[in-house]
Design goal:
By secondary structure, this protein is an alpha/beta fold. The chain has helices spanning 32-44, 80-97, 114-120, 122-130, 178-183, 198-209, 224-227, 234-243, 270-273, 289-308; strands spanning 48-53, 71-75, 107-113, 135-141, 189-194, 214-220, 249-253, 256-261. The structure holds thiamine diphosphate, iron/sulfur cluster and magnesium ion.
Length: 309
């Protein structure tokens, strides 16, 4: 009888990092969160300990299998930054004792979804920034509790249908501005990114690698399963999020917010909305002009402020 191969990679030290993610994992096809994580990991490299709060990415490392060559710590949803503190402290103690050479030190990277970052884990994140913890925080933002069936979260956009906002008008609330909340703590770095804009993403990840202290990334993560679109549209939807102005690409550094891409000729937001089943009720059986106009007006107001600044 032939030996069965495991579905997941297990400590495949010689495989390039670009081959590690997305292969043999139980993630959905076209996952925008995985796309961003993959691109980031290609730059960060394997001297990385990921600290992950419960969510879709947790499925990447199911003991004893992992696609990563560095470390992985799994935490409860509210406590990934506290887990990162413990790992950083342990590394620093080993450095001080001389048992960990400088060139073998590891970078500590929190990876959580929006449910943790915008909600349950915000207090622990705030504390970690207050303490100046030397870590990177990547939030892949699929705008809902994806792993448990896309319930709405504080990151869900206005009017989106989720499994807990099912009425004729979708989610009545508005997406929380996590970028500003994080920037208000005055950490070393905050940026928004998206996998569909890999050059912008790469410049930001390279920049933050030369810094110390809290460094924060929010990646909009188009989610075919939760947003209801064909997986082959992930990149197109990601690019449209940027082109229409729905997802501003920006960074906070040295007390300043700088937009790294300013879409001056913005197509209407409905070009982005109508590709996604979660907004289908805005177009069928008849157009909800008021809701579409409100979403457009908020995007326009954002950019009017940026361009007038
Ligand atoms: C305190 C707590 N409540 C609920 C859960 C169940 N749970 C596991 S993953 C998850 C969704 C997390 O959402 P998010 O952080 O956005 O990550 P995603 O699933 O979208 O990747 C939930 C609610 C949990 N693990 N812990
Ligand atoms: S539910 Fe969405 S975020 Fe989660 S693995 Fe699937 S595509 Fe990715
Ligand atoms: Mg989520």
């Amino acid at each position: 009888m032939s030996e069965e191969k495991p579905l997941h990679f297990h400590n495949m030290k010689d495989m390039p990092s670009s081959h590690l993610l997305g292969t043999g994992t139980p993630m959905c096809a076209g996952c925008g969160g995985l796309e961003a994580l993959h691109e980031i990991y290609d730059i960060l490299g394997s001297r990385t300990v990921f600290v992950n709060a419960a969510g879709c990415m947790t499925l990447l490392s199911v003991y004893p299998f992992t696609p990563f060559r560095g470390g992985w710590l799994y935490t409860a949803m509210a406590s990934a930054p506290a887990g990162a503190q413990g790992i950083r402290d342990a590394l620093d103690i080993q450095r001080a004792k001389g048992t960990l050479p400088a060139d073998e030190d590891l970078q500590v990277v929190v990876v959580t979804g929006d449910g943790s970052a915008y909600g349950m884990g915000l207090s622990a994140t705030s504390g970690a920034m207050d303490r100046g913890l030397d870590f990177i925080y990547l939030c892949y933002d699929n705008e809902g509790y994806g792993n448990t069936g896309q319930q709405y979260s504080p990151a869900t956009p206005h009017a989106a249908l989720t499994s807990t906002s099912t009425g004729a008008h979708g989610y009545p609330g508005f997406k929380k501005d996590l970028f500003s909340i994080w920037a208000a703590h005055k950490p070393a770095y905050v940026a928004t990114i998206i996998g569909a804009e890999p050059l912008d993403l790469a410049k930001k990840v390279e920049k933050l690698q030369s810094m110390k202290g809290p460094r924060m990334l929010i990646a909009l993560a188009p989610c075919p399963t939760g947003w209801d679109f064909d997986p082959q549209l992930t990149v197109e939807i990601g690019r449209l999020a940027v082109k229409t102005g729905v997802w501003p690409l920006k960074e906070y550094v040295d007390g300043q917010v700088v937009h790294t891409k300013v879409p001056r000729q913005r197509p209407p937001v409905e070009d982005y909305l109508k590709l996604q089943g979660r907004f289908k009720h805005l177009f069928e059986p008849q157009r909800d002009e008021a809701a579409i106009a409100e979403i457009q007006a908020r995007v326009d107001a954002y950019w009017a402020e940026v361009e007038g600044a």
